[in-house]
Write a structure and sequence with these properties.
Helix 1 (3-9) packs across helix 4. The chain contains 14 helices and 24 strands. The protein folds into two domains: 5-263 and 472-490, 3-Layer(aba) Sandwich (Aldehyde Dehydrogenase, Chain A, domain 1), CATH 3.40.605.10; 267-452, Aldehyde Dehydrogenase, Chain A, domain 2. It has helices at 3-9, 51-70, 73-89, 91-102, 106-126, 165-176, 190-206, 221-229, 242-254, 277-289, 309-321, 341-356, 410-418, 433-440, and strands at residues 15-17, 19-20, 25-26, 30-35, 42-48, 133-136, 142-150, 153-157, 180-184, 214-217, 235-239, 258-262, 267-271, 299-305, 360-363, 382-385, 401-407, 422-423, 425-429, 449-452, 464-465, 468-469, 476-477, 486-494. The strands form six sheets. It has a seven-stranded mixed beta sheet with strand order 3-2-10-9-8-11-12, sandwiched between helices. The protein starts with a helix and ends in a 15-residue tail after the last strand. It is globular. Pfam families: Aldedh.
Length: 509
């Protein structure tokens, strides 16, 4: 299927409106082009929002909230179930668009659409399981319980690397909880956002859902800043860099709003002397080069026991020789391009920093040139031997740059693992039960995700996704992450004939 075909199937004409209140689209004046990092070609043009468009979307969302929250949760869940079916119908086309617009391999693009489908299914089931708690009161003839209510408007700000999945993680849970959602996607992947909104919008229209329940508003970074400061949006869920998250946290915190932050990662795998090296190799290579190193869960550090360091380094070197880099739409390609020239420059700057700090290159990096690499966004996956205290190791470089280092004791390895400001994902490869249990204990990994005998990448939607420290502290997707999109209320009911007061206080009247 060529580019023109899949764009037409998704309803993406040459010029697309980028502002939608759910079923309706607003024709705006300003435009932004979507350029593919695969070949440097223009895919299409999206119209972006003006301040007036923003006000219109927020006002419409405010008006929709009272109607949407009255709809019973199982009814909301059924609408989301229909969305899952709609995304199943367009999985191939949408996955192809994600791959072409973002640069990840086609299999990863299709896998991302599957995540959208899976979280829709999860939210649909959740619609019958939004529960509270009951507890005994200390007063006679009283009952206490807790229940959850929707917040209102949930602002969803997403990054370029998962242009569909992270929107679904947040929006589907927000919708099933009775909230309404306003989505501001990355300006680098707007056509994917428009396609997702069109697919979801058709389902909303078929079910006569009020305008404003599920909205899209495309624009530059300033639009996200506007959302963060807007008191009408009680919760901002933002995915991106730690620097971006700090700004959002300050802006939302000043108005005492709520944030759900999914920020950067500096993820490590500890490979012990008791590791299955075949598993370790697969976990390390996929974790390091998947999505060209542009996942927040990308493996950026390997902490390898000194007794197997040289052996495993040779295995890595041989594996990297087999990595196929090229057009991600082609079968058999392992790694596509970085998102744009700015990302390439950040990668090159990191390589320069490694050289200045005395790192040794096991696999040299650089920009690929020649036939098939005309966009200038293709780079070589790089392996660098470092010391844990090198300044560059403390930073997250959003590129296929893997740092390897040695350790002698597991306590030392865990200290290295935890010795960065980020705390998203982590892993240990070991067949020794004592080692793995220590890693999972309170004295082990300080990350929000800690894996045994798998890598740092590839989280399932059933578990709560998120990290600690500079990774933001948020939790999205599965488990009880739905609670972030709701407000908790404690209720006390007196079914007796008197009113006992606290601390034995009495009145004579």
């Amino acid at each position: 299927m060529n580019n023109i075909d899949f764009l037409k199937v998704l309803g993406l004409e040459d010029l697309n409106p980028g502002v939608s209140t759910g079923n309706d689209w607003i024709l705006t004046a300003n435009e932004i082009e979507s350029i593919s990092p695969v070949d440097g070609k223009r895919i299409g043009t999206v119209r972006i929002a003006s301040p007036e468009d923003y006000e219109s979307v927020i006002k419409t969302a405010e008006e929709a909230f009272p109607e949407w929250r009255k709809l019973p949760a199982p009814k909301r869940g059924d609408i989301i179930r229909q969305m899952a079916d709609a995304f199943r119908k367009y999985k191939q086309e949408l996955g192809t668009l994600i791959s072409y617009e973002m640069g990840k391999s086609l299999q990863e693009g299709l896998g991302e659409v599957q995540e959208v489908i899976d979280v829709c299914d999860f939210a649909s089931g959740l619609s019958r399981q939004i529960y509270g708690l009951t507890m005994h009161s200390e007063r006679p003839d009283h009952r206490m319980y807790e229940q959850y209510h929707p917040l209102g408007i949930v602002g969803v700000i997403t990054a370029f690397n998962f242009p569909a999945a992270v929107w679904a993680w947040n929006t589907m849970l927000a919708l099933v909880c009775g909230d309404v959602a306003v989505w501001k996607p990355s300006h680098k992947v707007l056509l994917t956002a428009v396609a997702c909104q069109k697919i979801a919008g058709r389902v909303l229209k078929e079910n006569n859902v009020p305008e404003g329940v599920c909205s899209l508003i495309c624009g530059a970074n300033e639009l996200g800043e506007t959302m963060a400061k807007d008191k009408r949006i009680p919760l901002i869920s933002a995915t991106g860099s730690t620097a971006m998250g700090r700004k959002v946290a300050v802006a939302v915190g000043e108005r005492l709003g709520k944030t759900l932050l999914e920020l950067g990662g500096n993820n490590a795998i500890i490979i012990t002397e008791n590791a299955d090296l075949t598993i370790a190799l697969h976990a390390s290579v996929f974790g390091a080069i998947g999505t060209a190193g542009q996942r927040c869960t990308t493996t950026r550090r390997l902490i390898i026991h000194s007794s197997i360091f040289e052996e495993f380094k040779i295995k890595l070197l041989n594996a990297y020789k087999q990595v196929k880099i090229g057009n991600p739409l082609l079968e058999g390609i392992h790694m596509g391009p970085l998102i744009d020239q700015s990302a390439v420059q950040h990668y090159l700057n990191a390589l320069d920093d490694c050289k200045e700090q005395g790192a040794q290159f096991t696999v040299e990096g650089g920009v690929l040139e020649g036939t098939g690499y005309e966009s200038g966004c293709y780079v070589k996956p790089c392996i660098v031997e470092v010391k844990p205290d090198f300044p560059i190791v403390q930073k997250e470089t959003f590129a296929p740059l893997l740092y390897i280092m040695e350790y002698d004791t597991l306590a030392e390895a865990i200290g290295i693992q935890n010795g960065v400001s980020q705390g998203l994902s982590s892993g240990i490869i070991s067949l020794n039960l004592r080692e793995t249990e220590l890693f999972l204990s309170s004295a082990g990994s300080d990350c929000g995700i800690a894996n045994v005998n798998i890598g740092t990448s590839g989280a399932e939607i059933g578990g709560a996704f998120g990290g600690e420290k500079d990774s933001g502290g948020g939790r999205e997707s599965g488990s009880d992450s739905w609670k972030a999109y709701m407000r908790r209320q404690t209720n006390t009911i007196n079914y007796g004939t008197g009113l006992p007061l606290a601390q034995g206080i009495k009145f004579d009247f």
